[in-house]
Amino acid sequence: MEADGFLAELPVLAFQAVLLFARLGAAVMLLPGLGEQEVPATIRLGLGLGLVLLLMPALAPGLPAAPDDVGTATRLIVIEVVIGLWLGGLARLVTIAMAMAGQAVALLLGLAQALVPDPELGGQGTATGRLFSLAAVVVVLGTGLYALPLRALTESYAVLPVGEPFPAGAGAEAMAAAAAESFALALRLAAPFVLAAVVINVALGLLTRIAPQVQVYFLAVPGQVLAGVALLALVMPALLGAFEEAARGAFMNLPGLR
């Protein structure tokens, strides 16, 4: 009888596992540190399946049974995928701030022509942008911040139960606010280099007026690069500390944790 009962419940369990994987798997593909493009897709897939196995016993009682029609089942799965992508995207925007700051730093240092493949922003990116992106991953993984989005993802089932419609309006507002905060964080991180660029350009302008015979261009390019690299080495520890604090605050504001 126990075997017969298990076989009878197997379709329900399978559908519930699919619902869990739709949200968890979609989020894992975007979570900072865990969903990086450098991480093989098979590992990310395995992490999503592992989360399903881990959370299934606790979340199964609150999951709906398999519906009778395909349309309802498809609608439930699509909603769960959207919620997962939404939660993962909210967390991902924090690390994108580091990539944007790196791009701005490259422009200010005169290194915008040194391009490397950048999976974070897509296509070709600057070397400093890639450096900042990898530094963000190291901070997230090295400090254990990756656990906060995972916890938020788990707690999201209490805030956004399976089967309930996705609040598109509130979700769009949260995404817009997170994007604005990400852009503001990128500007704060790049602020020392903006100030340095202004000082250097004003100094070069004064030098041009004082000594017109000096070939300012041949002095400006290597001098700007050297000064920028020295400033980067000087302020990088503080930048990483500021990013860690901002990322922790952003992760704590994810739905399910606040």
Explain how this protein is built.
- By secondary structure, the chain is mainly α.
- The chain is built from seven helices and two strands, in the order H-H-H-E-E-H-H-H-H.
- The chain has one domain (2-252).
- It has a two-stranded antiparallel sheet.
- Helix 3 (70-109) runs parallel beside helix 6 (168-210) and helix 4 runs parallel beside helix 7.
- The mean pLDDT is 83.
Helix content: over 70%
- Helix/strand class: mainly alpha
Main sheet summary: 2 strands, antiparallel
Domain unit count: 1
Q: Please report the number of helical segments.
A: 7
Radius of gyration: 24 Å
Instruction: Using the alpha-carbon principal axes, give the shape.
Output: elongated
**Poorly predicted ranges:** none
Give, in order, the helices and strands.
HHHEEHHHH
Main location: membrane
Family: Belongs to the FliR/MopE/SpaR family.
Transmembrane segments: 12-31, 43-60, 72-89, 96-116, 128-148, 189-211, 217-243
Keywords: Cell membrane, Cell projection, Cilium, Flagellum, Membrane, Transmembrane, Transmembrane helix
